[in-house]
Amino acid sequence: MFLHRIKLAGFKSFVDPSTIVLPGNLVGIVGPNGCGKSNVADAVRWVMGEISAKHLRGGSMADVVFNGSTARKPVGLAQVEITIDNTEGRVGGQYSAFNEIAIRRQVSRDGQSTYFLNGRRCRRRDVTDVFLGTGLGPRSYAIIEQGMVSRLVEAKPDDLREFLEEAAGVSKYKERRRETENRIAHTRENLERLQDIRDELGKRIAHLKRQATVAEKYKQLKHEERLSRAQLATLHWRTLSGELTKQDRQLGERETALEARVTELRDLESRLDQQRAGHAEAQEAFNGEYRAALDAEAAIARSEENIRNLVKQAERVRKTLESEEEVRKEADRHLGSEKEKIETLEKDLAEGEPELERLKAEAVEAAAEHAKAESDMHESSSSWEAIGLRVVEATQVVRAGEGRIEQLTERLADADKRHARLEQERQKLGTGKLEREIIALAKAIREHDAIRAKLKSQLARHQLAVRDLGRHIEELSSALGGAREQFQDVRGRLSSLTALQQDALGKGEGAVTDWLQACDLTESPRLAEKLEVAEGWERAVEHVLGDRLRAICVDGLDTPLAGLAGLGEGTVTFFDTAAPNPDAPKVAGPEPEQWQEIHPEPLITDIVVVEPIKPRGVRRKKEKRWVRILRRIFRFRRRTGSQKAKRELPPVLALPAPVAPPEPAPTMPPLNPNPLHEKVSAPWPLDSLFAGVRVADSLEEALDLRPALKLGQSAITPEGEWIAANWLRAHRGAGAGAGVLSREREIKTLSETISQLQAEIEGWEYAMAAAHGRRKAAEQEQAKSEKGSIDAEQYHAKLQSAIAQRRARFEEFRRRALAIAHELADLEEQRVQARTGIGEENKNLAEQQAIRDRVIRERDAEAERRKEYQGRLAASRKRWQEIRDKAHQAELRMASLRTRHGALTQSRVRDSEQRKRLDTRCQELRQSLEEITPPLQQAKSELAEHRLRRQELESKLKAAREQVEKQESAVRESDQRRHAVSDRIESDRTLLEKTRLTRQETHVRREGIEEQITASGHAVDTLLAELPEEANEADWTARIVVLEQQVARLGPINLAALQEHAEQSQQKEHMDSQYQDLTDALDTLETAMRDMDRETRNRFADTFEKVNVQLGTLFPRLFGGGHAQLELVGDDTLNAGVTIMARPPGKRNSTIAQLSGGEKALTAVALVFALFELNPAPFCLLDEVDAPLDDANVYRFRDMLEEMSDRVQFLVITHNKNTMEILQQLVGVTMSEPGVSRLVSVDMDRAQDFSEAVAGAT
């Protein structure tokens, strides 16, 4: 696995698309300062997922996009792509099968980055996961940028630990551990939320279970009611079946009469068929004669057509003969012309043959002369090439000498520059400024300690506020849960009441509902929905209106009347809201005659004998005793209100009593002036429904009013006790309108309650949201305080680090001054050696230049001779080509003459053959003309015979036509008689169809009932078998009434409770399962975390020991002695930091900060190489790591670099020529255009091969 290619476009100074190909393991990037070399290192770090602009030497991520220059505009997109060779499969996971992995990152001006893996868009984490455990990453030890070498050894223990973790391959375990901790935290939060939900569900299920029990009882009673209704429909079906049997018998009688009429019609049709057969025979005879006449006409036409065709054919043959004669004459003329042309061509061929032979001989002679000139020229070329090679060799020797002089000159110049730079550095070294900085930093540390204490106090206050808001949110959540539970209870109650109200108002009856939908009256309101009744008078209004509460309010009766014929079964009542308010009818309650019709045999418990009005002298005490009697009767009804009694007792309790002899009228008590309709309000007048009905607050008051009631007047109490002058009606059971108005009032009240609860819930939710917002703001303030505290701690650490660094630099400056003195002495010696070498090389160069000039003069003389040979060769080539061209032209002319002679000869042969064919053709045409005359004479004779035959056939045709007309007259008379009989059959058939239609209507009614029974889930045969023989519709109607009363006694029903109970129970089971799953998941995550911790400890400890061993081996190699080792900061291997302790030869420093810059660099290199020895990353990028090293240390550094290049690919950014010497390829970065970087690549191995080849040639 190695880095194969880097592509940059728009990234920092690389505005143009640039590609860096890395074919080897030692690739260098060189160039002057500021040309953009380090941008390559930033690009690699950035494409691998770096998100800190500071580490990319920028202020924001948009700074990596090219920002323009003096000559170029800014671009909007930066893009970097690296291609990694994965033939060894070191990258695992889903990309292990790819030989190459391309990773690309793009960023626009808005700072948003986009990542791609092998051309597919991905997340940043996907990119970082690719490199986990490989030693690569945006901040791994495989990428050492400028200044990072010293920071590496001075890094915090935790930061240095990260490098060892990457080398140990546990970085991915650490990442997984963080994920596991987050998952555990989330799992615990989910467990708390889940436990709250489970507790709430338990309370809700207990509440729903009670409602579900009542709903189940309701469903059972409704099932019995539906079964009874299905049985009632079956009884009706049985009645209709009897009617169908009777209608089938009547239908059979009428079908027998119809069959007699049909028999008579068939006899007439038989006679008519015979007459039609005779007519058909006559018609056939007529048709035969007619066809014969037509055949004769056709024969005449054919004869005439044959004669015309023969005449035309003779004319056509005559014209063809004339045309062929003309063609034959033209052929004779063409044969004479061809003969003359052939004679001319034969003469030209005889003259051209001698000239062609002469030109061929001259061409052979010129070719021999040209071959001799070419041979002379070849010999001259060999001499020329030998002299040219000597000139090149002499020139290369001179250039090599000049190159050595230039190298010595550059080395001298470098030594001069180095000498001047060291002198300048020695002058700049001073300790006064550092002393002042150390004093200032100590003062800043004391001031910052006070700020840190203040920030910690502020953080404690914010943490307390967050805890208080959390408790407040829990209180709000509890209140919101209570409101939601109340809302669910009210909504369930409303749902049950609405279902009962729909059923009570008749909106669930199938036939009536279908008819209303057909009439577009489904949405029309029922009367009960529009009434507003004074509180306490609902039962009285329900008693008076009864089924009329279900009346449908319509604006006029035109629409219902128009569709009334389509109503099959059922009862429907309409209330005309547009009708004027008529006068009150005479009687508001039932008439006495109607009681006997409704209940011809009432039971004794249903009868109340109403005595006639007593004379004026009757005592009040006597009248009060009647009231007590009525009270006892009503109490008896209540006590005996069992299901059996309710099935037997109808709701009516009054019958007329015998009238006593007339007596003087007593004094009438004053009549209550309050009519019942004043207790009711509606959008329309309701006087017609309550006419004559007065209100009484109690039964005693109603009895007091009774003497004053006239015919058609009545009084009613709030309990529904309805009394008139001669009747009393008291209702205690459930009926069609029982509880409708009170239920409607409760429905409206519950709807208002739901609206209020919804508003209350919204208020609690708003309060919850506000509390969450305040807690979030408090948490943000807490986070800011925490960040401020952390920043303060970091700043404090920076101050401590800065003061330590300045103290170390103070000591370093002192040592540096001594090192500069030694280095200046070495440089002076190098300068003397360079000057001596330049003098010797100049002397050798003069000698080689003289040799080169002599060889060049020899080359010029040979060039003159070569020019003379070239002239001779050109002249001979020109003469040979001219003669060859003339001979070729003569040969082409002779070939053309031969071709034309052959073509004319063949053409003359073909024309002769054509002449013979024309003679034959003319003879054939004359013979055809003679053969046409006999057939023409015969055709004229046949035409005369056919015309005689036609005259005979016309006479026979006339006689056959008269016979056909006679037969047609007989057929017409028989057909008229048949039509008369057919009309009588149609009359009988119409009567039969009417009978069938009546039967069909009965059958359809029976099928409709049968479909209703089937739709209810029952079968007619089964129901008939279950019904007793004495069953009748009246008994079953009474049974349904009893079931309705039992349903009404159940009270409010929450029909949704059954489903809600099942759903909530299922949800509870699901929640329990989730709770167990989360508990198991928590155990699994904790186990996984312990396993990862154990694996991390083991791997880190093993890596720590191995890196320590490698560091102890490599450090002496780089320093020529000394000792270095890693130490753990802390006892826990899982979290302990790492520090490095290094002592170069002869030193006893106590900290790494006391080392010089070069020593720190070598220490860092030793650590990096030790990490690579243990876990070599696929490639390593070193950015000017050798900058602080002197030549001796550079040689040791590059030797180790070259040794490790067998296992690791190195991309080295350097200015040091000693380092460049070992690199296999060099990539130059230039900035010829200001602000724009460009690439120049050189393969050092190929360059060295070329240099050796040139040296060998010299």
Give structural notes:
The structure is a single chain. This protein is an alpha/beta fold and 1258 residues long. The protein has a domain at 603-649 and 652-732. 68% of the residues lie in helices and 9% in strands. Strands 2-1-4-5-6-7 form a six-stranded antiparallel sheet. α10 (558-562) links the parallel β10 (552-554) and β11. α5 crosses α16 and α5 runs parallel beside α20. The longest helix has 258 residues, at 171-428. The radius of gyration is 63 Å and the shape is flat. It starts with a strand and ends with a helix. Mean pLDDT is 77; it is low at 583-627 and 629-672. Residues 521-706 form the SMC hinge domain. Belongs to the SMC family. It comes from Candidatus Kentrum sp. DK. Homodimer. This is Chromosome partition protein Smc.
